Every structure is written in C-alpha cells, then in structure tokens.
From TrEMBL:
Tagged with keyword Signal: yes
Record's protein name: Choice-of-anchor L domain-containing protein
Keywords assigned: Signal
Secretion signal, residue range per the UniProt entry: 1-19
Domain of life the protein comes from: Bacteria
Organism for this UniProt entry: Flavobacterium capsici
Keyword Signal on entry: yes
InterPro entries registered for this protein in UniProt: Choice_anch_L, Ig-like_fold, T9SS_type_B
Length: 670
C-alpha cells in the first residue's frame, strides 16, 4: 500500500507541477486593450473608449489582458471580461470563483433589455466607437462559466449568467446583439449552449466545448467553443460597440468572456461560406463573384489557400463553370488602404461538380418465399452504380417522390410489385434535382424441391438438378446440371434462371446397403399365427412375405400357410435379402378310420423348424400318458397297446431339451 500511495502522490504532484494555466495582466489601459490587443491593426479608428466593472479593495479588476501562457487554451492572448476578479479565472479549476459580493456593483440596463431580463449584477463593460473601412466587422470569443456544472441538481439547469456584444450606429439608440448562436437570434448563455452528459438537457451541443477537469487552464467549470460575432456595417460610418457581461439573479458562480487578440476585423463581407458542410456550395451551373470593393482601398490581392492568385489584383474575383474539386478551398483578399493599414478577409468555397448518372435502372431478385414481386432492397448498394463521379463526402438518400422529405430506410421494401420508381437526392447539397431510379424485381416462380436419395456401399450415384436453366453451380464447384457422387453427405446446387435469380436445391445423400436377415420370430401356437422379420444393416428397409407387396413394418399376422419367404428390400435400391421360414401346423383333430385320410395325428414342420428332436407326449383326459414320439416320426395312429382308443378329446405337450414349448388338445374322431 505504501508504494501505491507514493505512486499516486507522485502523479498528483507531477501533474500539478507540470500543468500550464493562463496568466492575466490588469495594468493595461482600456485604450491599450482595444487598440493594441483586440484590434491590433493600423486600420483602427477608435475613440470614446471606456470601461467599468469591479474594482476590489485589494486592487484586482474584473477586466484586463490574458495570455495562454503556454497552456492549451485556444486563444494565445486577448481581452478578458469577468463577473469577478480576472485573476480568479486562472487555473487550475479547483475552487469556486464568485467574487462579486459588493452590493454596489450593479448590473447593466442595456444587457437587461437585450436579453429580456431584469436581474443582473456585477456587470463589466468595455465600450468604444470605431469607424469601419470595410462593410463587415467580426471578432472571436469564448464564453466560460462556473455555472457549467458537471453534476447539477434539477433546479440548477436554468442558472445562467448573461453577456452581449451590443452594436449600433453612433447616431442611433437601438442596439443589435452580436453574441448569438450562429444563424439564429438566440443569445449565447449556459442554458442555450450546453453539452450532453448531465441531467440538464443539451442545447446546441455542437457549439459547446467541454466540462473542465481540475487541470484546465482556467478556473471555470466549462466553456463554449470559439465562436465568431459578426455584423455588416456601412464603411466610413461611426459605430458604437458595447461588450458587457453580468451575473444573473445573484453574484454567485462567476463567468467570463475571452476576446481573441487581433480578431477584431474591420474588413469586407465576402458573404457566407459556401461549403458542402453548410449544405450551400456553389452549384455547377452557377456563376459567382466575390466583391471586396472598399472606399479608399489602394490595392487588392486575392489568395487561394493562403497563396496569392496571379493577376487577381482587382476588387472582385469572378467564378464561372465548369468547376472541379481542385478549386475547393479558402479564398481571401488582402486590401491595402495605406502603408500602415492592411485588412484581410476570407471565405470558404466548395464547388459542386456536374453529377454524371451511370445506371438508373436496377434489377433485383425477389428473395423471399412468396415470389410476388415485393421484396426488400438495400438502397446503399445502388449509389455506387448510380453516379460515375460522386464525391466521397456527398450523402445520398432515397425518397418515394421528388417532393418527399422523408427518407426511405436503407432496407426498403417496395410498395408496388415488380417495378417502382424512387428518387435519389444529395442530402448535403442543395444544387441537384431529385434523380429518378427505377427498381425492377425479378422472380423465380418455378418450384425447386429438395431431395433425399440413397447411395449403395462402394457405388456411385448421379444427382440431377431441375433441367432447363442457363446456370448451375454446385457446392463442389461443378457447373453442370448433374454430378456423380460416391459418398453420403449433403450436396447443394444453385440454379439460376434467365432473369438472373437463383434458388438452391439440396440433395441429402444417405448411405445404404442390402439388409441382413438376423432372425424371424414366429408365433404359431395360437389361432392367429404371426411372424416378425428382424433385419440389420445401414439402410432404409421395407418388408414382404410374398415378394410383391411390401410394407414398412416387419410384422405379419393371420398367417395360414406353412412355408413362407421373408423379403427385406432396401428402399434405395441396394438389393433384397431373402430367407425362408416355416410355421407349425397343430391339427385340431384326426380320423383314424382306415379310409386312408387323416389317419395319424402329428405336428407338421417340426423338423423344418429344427424341432426334430422335440418330444410330443399325448394324454387322455385323465392324464394318462398314451404315446410319446419325436418331431421326426410320423405321429400317433389312435392306438394304445394295440387297442383303438375311443373318440374323445386328448391332450398333448411339446418339449424340447427339457423345456415345455406348448400344451394343447385335439379330438380323435371315429
């Protein structure tokens, strides 16, 4: 345990010692913060700079300069405005920053009006006038807050501080807030930009950066990604901008705005980025002109991906089709107004190619057992063959009609049999129409049944698939309609019809052989004589006692004859085994009257049954032994000691090797 504690301590100590945090500087004047840090350009025409915020008894301020100080903070340097001490915003993120308990540190009415709230406190304001040379201003910022709680309770989900970047013409009293979520009028706040992972609902999570670990460069629980505030302006007109942040509701849980140094751009507006990611690229049949015309400009130089474009030194840059992918990228223009004033502004452009369709009709086979022309189709398998030059970043969806906005599922089951037209649309590009795609469903209506066949030992058998089809493929690799096999097993053949649809026929080949008749169990000592044929062997057998009529069971009853032949036939044609068997005939009477018929009483077939050594004993009704003879003798003639016995019933027993087999009686008739 001691070693583990030392190791943990080493990690904690090393992590703390090696971590890098932002640094702050409160010594710069408001004018220095604007001219030298935020704008940092010879093009600036700035006046009426003022600042207000928290001035603490110990000398700290709620605004000033910050530097990344070698940390991972996204901005290298800039201006920081906070609802507490900016020095409290220095990482690590291990303490609660809420410095604004001074009741005289109030909120801001313009912020209240912009955000439609009325309960702000601890406002820090940086404002100034400026005259733009171009027709657009922009700057980058990050909003950080202690109110980004990684483990909030439900009632904390609505907590948020407020800030605004308020712009107006100097001659106007009406402000516009630039601190909004891109392409909306929604102000950026804790509850409008928040990521997933807590009980609080996410909001515009694509603009949220992270909930921070203890070793974050700042002492705030979370922050947005780097965002851009921008607005169109009138060149040469004086504007007033007010950058303000405040606590809402109470002074607890401070927040801060980080304004990126040098990002306050007074350039021209070349328009919104036209990219595939934004779903608004330049269309293949569209002409486009970028216009950077600025009053007072001396020179222009257009660039592509940071490199000057030869001969493009006018105020405009024109594009006309045809286009190709090599033109996609960043276009910028450097505008020189004087030796000390150069502005650069840029735009990202993607150019859509002319899409070439290759195959617009596709045939698929009905894959289910109900060959009705209704089948499921994997639509993503169509796309590679539909277009010959589809860029890899184009997303294709399919729809039931050109105007439908509900994409079909990738596994799409046709709603009309045999043929249906659907429509392909480029999801992330608004330049293209809906492309009609015809889906044909082919069927295989013929019935293909599996078969079970037998193969005799040391033999071969021919397996023949249904005939008349253009293609066969056996699992053995053979492509004929018939194959020969010599071993039992399962064999399958894929049969393909003229439409290209397939069915699989399976042959189960069962090994077989001629039977061996092991025994015939005979029951002939009663009125209903029967026999059971007992056979063995690797086969599927059927049984007969006349060689004509066969049955699956080896039992035969009501046997009246004395001699039979047992037939065991292999159903797979491997041969017939035979064996004779005999039934005993025990006469119920005899008539020893000298007419030459039925003169003696004996049991027929004893010798044929192997009972020629059996002993037959005859008794009168009183149990007196009258006669004994073996199975090989002719029997009893009705005499006892030379005297004729009276007509009567007599009894007998059959014993063999000391075991009684049967006893019964018969009649002597005179």
């Amino acid at each position: 345990m001691l070693l583990k504690r030392i190791y943990i301590f080493f990690l904690l100590f090393f992590g703390s010692a090696s971590a890098q945090y932002i640094s702050t500087d409160e010594s710069r004047t408001p004018l220095q913060l604007i001219e030298d840090v935020l704008i940092n350009s010879g093009c600036a025409s700035v006046s009426n700079v003022s600042v207000s915020g928290g001035f603490f008894p110990t000398g700290e301020k709620s605004y000033g300069y910050f530097n990344a100080n070698g940390s991972t903070f996204p901005f290298q340097e800039g201006v920081m405005l906070s609802t507490g001490k900016i020095v409290s915003g220095i990482g690590p993120n291990t303490s609660l920053s809420d410095d604004g308990s001074d009741p005289s540190w109030t909120g801001d009415n313009d912020l209240n009006q912009a955000l439609n709230i009325n309960n702000t406190y601890n406002a820090t304001v940086l404002e100034f006038d400026f005259v733009p040379l171009g027709n657009q201003i922009s700057f980058e910022y990050i909003f950080s807050s202690e109110q980004y709680l990684a483990n909030p309770s439900a009632n904390q989900c609505g907590y948020t501080d407020g800030f605004a970047f308020l712009l107006r013409e100097a001659s106007s009293s009406s402000y516009t807030n630039l601190a909004v979520i891109p392409n909306t009028n929604i102000p950026v706040k804790v509850n409008t930009v928040r990521g997933p992972g807590t009980i609080c609902p996410p909001a515009n999570p694509e603009y949220f950066d992270a909930f921070n670990s203890p070793q974050h460069p700042t002492n705030y629980n979370g922050q947005t990604k780097a965002l851009t505030a921008r607005s169109t302006v009138i060149p040469g007109t004086t504007y007033h901008i007010k950058l303000v942040i405040a606590d809402q509701g109470n002074y607890r849980y401070d927040s801060a705005i980080f304004l990126k140094g040098g990002s306050f751009n007074l350039g021209v507006n070349l328009g919104d980025d036209r990219t595939i990611a934004n779903q608004n690229p330049v269309c293949s049949n569209e002409s486009l002109t970028l216009d950077a015309t600025s009053v007072g400009a001396q020179t222009y130089q257009w660039k592509f991906n940071g490199n000057p474009i030869p001969s493009q030194t006018g105020s405009t840059l024109a594009f006309s089709p045809p286009y190709n992918a090599s033109q996609n990228g960043n276009y910028s223009v450097v505008i020189t107004f004087s030796p000390t004033c150069t502005l650069e502004t840029d735009i990202d452009l993607d150019f859509s190619p002319v899409l070439q369709t290759n195959q617009t009709s596709f045939s698929f086979c009905d894959t289910d057992s109900n060959q009705d022309g209704i089948s499921a189709v994997t639509l993503s398998n169509i796309t590679p063959a539909l277009f010959t030059n589809l860029p890899s970043n184009f997303q294709v969806n399919y729809y039931s009609s050109p105007t439908s906005t509900t994409a079909l599922p990738n596994s799409f089951t046709l709603t009309t049999p045999y043929q249906q037209t659907i429509y392909a649309k480029i999801l992330n590009n608004n330049c293209y129409p809906a492309f009609p795609v015809t889906i044909n469903i082919q069927v295989f209506n013929d019935t293909i049944l599996d078969q079970t066949v037998g193969i005799c030992s040391n033999n071969q058998i021919t397996l023949t698939a249904n005939s008349g089809y253009p293609s066969y493929l056996w699992d053995t690799g053979q492509t004929t309609s018939s194959i020969q096999v010599t071993t039992p097993g399962t064999y399958s053949v894929t049969i393909t019809n003229v439409q290209g649809c397939s069915k699989v026929k399976t042959f189960t080949v069962v090994g077989s052989e001629i039977a061996t008749i092991d025994n015939i169990t005979i029951n002939d000592f009663n009125d209903n004589n029967s026999a059971e044929i007992i056979a063995s062997g690797n086969g599927d057998y059927e049984y007969s006692i006349d060689g004509i009529n066969y049955q699956t069971l080896p039992f035969f009853t009501n046997l009246n004859g004395l001699e039979y032949t047992a037939f065991v036939r292999d159903k797979n044609g491997c041969g017939i085994a035979t064996k004779k068997f005999y039934l005993l005939l025990i006469p119920k009477f005899f008539t020893p009257n000298g007419d030459g018929y039925n003169e003696t009483w004996y049991i027929k077939n004893l010798s044929k049954r192997g009972l020629n050594q059996a002993t037959i004993s005859i008794f009168d009704r009183y149990g007196k032994l009258l006669k004994q003879f073996s199975g090989s003798t002719i029997g009893w003639d009705g005499n006892y000691n030379g005297k004729l016995m009276l007509a009567d019933d007599y009894w007998f027993t059959i014993t063999n090797a000391g075991k009684e087999l049967f006893r019964g009686h018969f009649a002597l008739i005179r």
